[in-house]
UniProtKB/TrEMBL annotation, chain A:
Highest classification ranks of the organism: Bacteria, Pseudomonadati, Pseudomonadota, Betaproteobacteria, Rhodocyclales
Stored Pfam families: PNTB (PF02233)
Cellular localisation: Cell inner membrane
Domain called NADP transhydrogenase beta-like: residue spans: 7-452
GO CC annotation: plasma membrane
Reactions accelerated catalytically: NAD(+) + NADPH + H(+)(in) = NADH + NADP(+) + H(+)(out)
E.C. code: 7.1.1.1
Name this polypeptide is given: NAD(P) transhydrogenase subunit beta
Function recorded in the entry: The transhydrogenation between NADH and NADP is coupled to respiration and ATP hydrolysis and functions as a proton pump across the membrane.
GO MF terms held by the record: NADP binding; proton-translocating NAD(P)+ transhydrogenase activity
Organism encoding this protein: Thauera linaloolentis (strain DSM 12138 / JCM 21573 / CCUG 41526 / CIP 105981 / IAM 15112 / NBRC 102519 / 47Lol)
Annotated family: Belongs to the PNT beta subunit family.
Cross-referenced InterPro entries: DHS-like_NAD/FAD-binding_dom (IPR029035), NADH_DH_b (IPR012136), PNTB-like (IPR034300)
Catalytic EC class: translocase
TrEMBL record, chain B:
Name of the top EC class for this enzyme: translocase
Highest classification ranks of the organism: Bacteria, Pseudomonadati, Pseudomonadota, Betaproteobacteria, Rhodocyclales
Species annotation: Thauera linaloolentis (strain DSM 12138 / JCM 21573 / CCUG 41526 / CIP 105981 / IAM 15112 / NBRC 102519 / 47Lol)
Boundaries of every NAD(P) transhydrogenase alpha subunit C-terminal domain copy: 7-91
Descriptive protein name: proton-translocating NAD(P)(+) transhydrogenase
Pfam family name, one: PNTB_4TM
Any single Gene Ontology cellular-component annotation: plasma membrane
């Protein structure tokens, strides 16, 4: 009876998860979706306590409370700009949990069926890669690990290590009672593989990697679900694995970077520095007063925010400025590149936080054709996503990446902290264009000054 | 579980995952990734089951089981909180909430 009830509950939970994900793919129902899924998760956890023959309950409760509390507190307190690395680390923990499940099943010596053993090993491998890879991704985005490092012959090392790990996995599958040395070695190599795969990847490729690792964790959970004979885990895991793969493809497409390129030929500062044609011309400086008057007397202004605006926490100031301009009769729109921020959609989240209505926010496809009719494009802390060499210079590492064509606007004002190159280390030809002016300073200060001047022009 | 029945479940779940989010607007990519990150937090259930059947006399099993449940719980709780925080900003549709 108890078992029947538990199985029925798991079934309902799986259905609610799918409906929740479905709801999360529309802005109107998204919030309901996560709340439903949340209830389903609580229900699944509670009924699991009634599993017949469940021991170690005290330890279990302790682990749930400790893990849940740490994550709950860190999730509540993290700043919106730091969300991507939090998603990465929670995802890594899920992968780690899946790998630990496999480890425990092997330690108990309960796995004898070759199919079960294969899926357990696969789940352990993928889960371990997701765990260590996500930890590296977290460290990079958090700024703990500054430099992308590439080993000599990185791709050969990757392939060799992957092959060796797979070989050990195979050895575990074929041996009926694998030795603990073999199992430990397998996990060590799998964890090393995740770290080594992820460490050379940097810059704009990071969101794709996080999304890919998210799909990996889903798969690992699905495989371990099979090992445990739990269809709820299979369904939830595989659904996430498939949707995560699709999301990864959408992101990679937005950057015109095939996933294989992301992993095998990362854009990194060192690699990018030597390539690309030299750019001629000079950067022309603008004052906050000039910027304020040009925008105040324009008829249409497009604001192009990037990660620089987000780290400066300037989105509220930017929206305040936009509202002032609108009161003065200027049409203001926001143009968002799909990978602005650190993840697709991250910038929309940040603008929504500042209170910018959706109907002022335009995607790349929606706005790119309009730039010639736009009087002023104000670029705030964005760099690579507005770099015209992506259109013109075949030798550039970002050639072919879709960009916002701000250089086609009548005037371009770039708010930038200093004269350095972008996150990917590539020189930006936009800054040297005749219609482009540079407004140096942190986004917060620069926009604050512009606001003061716009107000002064009104009185 | 019977091998082929499981294979069918894998296949159908994969198509479901693909279809369910195929028409998602870009603004929801990050929240949706975070939401799916939460959904695979159900690994907690699996972790609880294995810890529940671990040998109470074997400290190695207990430690691995504890780690599994701890990580699973963190995945679920953290995934929920960050997704909910992101999506909370989308409530109220196009309503202006003012600046600052």
């Amino acid at each position: 009876m108890a078992n029947w009830f538990i199985q029925a509950s798991y079934f309902v939970v799986a259905v609610v998860f799918i409906l929740g994900l479905k709801a999360m793919s529309s802005p109107v129902t998204a919030r309901k979706g996560i709340v439903w899924a949340g209830y389903a998760m609580v229900a699944a956890t509670v009924v699991t306590f009634f599993t017949p023959g469940l021991g170690n309950v005290g330890l279990m409760v302790l682990a749930i409370v400790a893990g849940g509390a740490v994550a709950w507190w860190s999730g509540k307190t993290v700043k919106m700009t730091d969300m991507p690395q939090m998603v990465a680390i929670y995802n890594g923990m899920g992968g780690g949990a899946a790998a630990a499940i496999a480890a425990l099943e092997f330690a108990r010596g309960e796995i004898h069926d070759p199919v079960v053993a294969t899926l357990a090993v696969l789940g352990a491998l993928i889960g371990s890669v997701a765990f260590s890879g996500s930890c590296i991704a977290y460290a990079k985005l958090q700024g703990i690990m500054k430099n992308a490092f590439r080993l000599p012959q990185q791709n050969m090392v990757n392939i060799g290590l992957a092959a060796l790990t797979a070989l050990l996995g195979l050895a575990i599958v074929v041996s009926d009672q694998p030795s603990s040395t073999l199992i430990v070695l397998f996990f060590v190599l799998a964890l090393a593989l995740g770290a080594i795969l992820t460490s050379p990847i940097g810059g704009a490729d990071m969101p794709v990697v996080i999304s890919l690792l998210n799909a990996f964790t889903g798969l690992a959970v699905g495989f371990e679900g099979y090992v445990l004979g739990n269809p709820a885990l299979i369904v939830a895991g595989i659904v996430v694995g498939a949707s995560g793969t699709l999301l990864t493809q959408l992101m990679a497409k937005a950057m015109n970077r095939p996933i294989t390129n992301v992993i095998f030929t990362p854009i990194s500062g060192a690699a990018a520095g030597g390539e690309g044609e030299a750019i001629e011309g000079t950067m022309k400086e603008f004052s906050a007063l000039d910027a304020a008057s040009v925008m105040r007397y324009a008829s249409k202004v497009a604001i192009v925010p990037g990660y620089g605006m987000a780290v400066a926490g300037a989105q509220h100031k930017v929206w305040e400025m936009a509202q002032l301009l609108e009161e003065a009769g200027v049409e203001v729109v926001f143009a968002i590149h799909p990978v602005a921020g650190r993840m697709p959609g991250h910038m929309n989240v940040l603008l929504a936080e500042a209170g910018v209505p959706y109907d002022k926010i335009f995607d790349l496809e929606e706005i790119n054709a309009d730039f010639p009719q736009i009087d002023v494009a104000l670029v705030i802390g964005a760099n690579d996503v507005v770099n015209p060499v992506a259109r013109t210079d075949k030798t550039s590492p970002i050639y072919g990446m879709p960009i916002l064509n701000v250089d086609m606007a009548q005037n371009v004002i770039v708010v930038k902290r200093g004269k350095g190159a972008g996150y990917s280390g590539i020189e930006n030809a936009l800054f040297y264009k005749d219609n482009c002016r540079m407004l140096y300073g942190s986004a917060q200060d620069a926009i604050g000054q512009v606001i003061t001047h716009v107000k002064a022009l009104e009185s | 579980m019977e091998g082929f029945a499981a294979l069918y479940i894998f296949m159908l779940a994969a198509f479901t995952g693909y279809e369910v989010i195929s028409r998602v607007p870009v603004i929801l990519h990050t929240p949706l990734m975070s939401g799916s990150n939460f959904v695979h937090g159900v690994v907690l259930v699996g972790a609880m089951v294995v810890l529940g059947h671990a040998d109470p006399e074997d400290p190695v099993q207990l430690v691995i089981g504890f780690v599994a449940v701890f990580l699973g719980a963190a995945n679920a709780a953290g995934g929920y909180v960050v997704t909910e925080r992101m999506l909370a900003m989308f409530k109220g549709g196009n309503k202006k909430e003012g600046g600052a």
